[in-house]
Amino acid sequence: MKNLSSFSKKFNINKTSIYILSLQLDKNGYSYIIVDPILKRYIAIKHVNFEQNIASKSFGDKIKEIFLNENILNKNYKTFNFCFLSQKNTLVPTSLFDNKNLKSYFEFNHIPDNSEELRFNFLKNTEAYNIFAVPTEITTFLINRIPKIKFYNQASIFIESTIDKAKIDKLKTPFVRININIDFFDIAIIISEKLILYNTFSYKNENDIIYFILNIFEKLNLPVDGSYISISGDIEARSDFFIKINNFVKNIKFSNLKKETEYIFNNIPEHFLYNISNLHLCE
């Protein structure tokens, strides 16, 4: 994704205490969204790709440099959300969850790293918890700076917003949501407003994405033509990437944000930063 930045004329640097800020970080760059909950409007959006000299640094150094360069992040906000973009997450049903056993749950799918700490989000739409890892360098820095900060993983936002969409639109056909990140993508299948599948896959090119998507359709015996398929993230409408995917998965649509928060940035497609744009609704 290219660097993006747009601020509404309604944005007031002296009124940040009434705003909600959501910051997202991964090894490749960072993004943030600012929402005015009174006007119910997105008022700032920004995405920055790391330059090579920053990309090679530790996460601790990266987060410090971000706050050094982005004075707007150092203001006081009504709510400050942080999302760490990572495939290191796992879902546990509420009936089985005990926060004393985070490591045991996590070890079913991932190898714990001593440089990371485990956190979790409750997913009300699925009656499950998403357990995820965040580098300790990041959590230490952020908690010391913003004691009331809330931590999330992109899977939490992705799953909750997908089920919300199915409920709001009362979708009767299978609903397939895909979100493209720079080197992995998340996919969810919703049928009758229930989560049937969530998974995440690493990829190198569009052929990998097409293979995984079609394989899921085959394994679940889903009709490609009879499903509602929505895509968001790091993909442009007229790119070769999208055209190739659309050749195999017909009638794929770009995801739209909920209308309850006005999106005013006409120069930035709302599907680009779809996950973080929905983060303020997860509170």
What do the pLDDT scores average to?
Answer: 92
Shape: globular
Strand content: 25-35%
Question: DSSP helix count?
Answer: 8
| N-to-C span | 27 Å
Structural class: alpha/beta
Radius of gyration: 19 Å
* Total number of beta strands: 14
CATH architectural label of the domain at 159-254: 2-Layer Sandwich
Q: Kindly identify the CATH topology of the domain at 159-254.
A: Nucleotidyltransferase, domain 5
Give the CATH class of the domain at 159-254. Alpha Beta
CATH superfamily of the domain at 159-254: Protein of unknown function DUF3822, C-terminal domain
> What are the segments in which pLDDT stays under 50 over at least 5 consecutive residues?
none
Largest sheet: 6 strands, mixed
Which percent range fits the helix content? 25-40%
Order of helices and strands: EEEEHHEEHEEHEHEEEHEHEH
Strand ordering within the main sheet:
1-4-3-2-5-9
Topology diagram in text:
Blueprint: E1 4-7, E2 20-25, E3 29-36, E4 41-49, H1 52-55, H2 59-69, E5 79-84, E6 89-93, H3 102-106, E7 116-123, E8 128-135, H4 136-145, E9 150-153, H5 154-169, E10 175-180, E11 184-191, E12 194-202, H6 206-219, E13 228-233, H7 240-248, E14 253-254, H8 274-277
Parallel strand pairs: 2-5, 5-9, 10-13, 13-14
Antiparallel strand pairs: 1-4, 2-3, 3-4, 6-8, 7-8, 10-11, 11-12
Helix pairs in contact: 2-4, 6-7
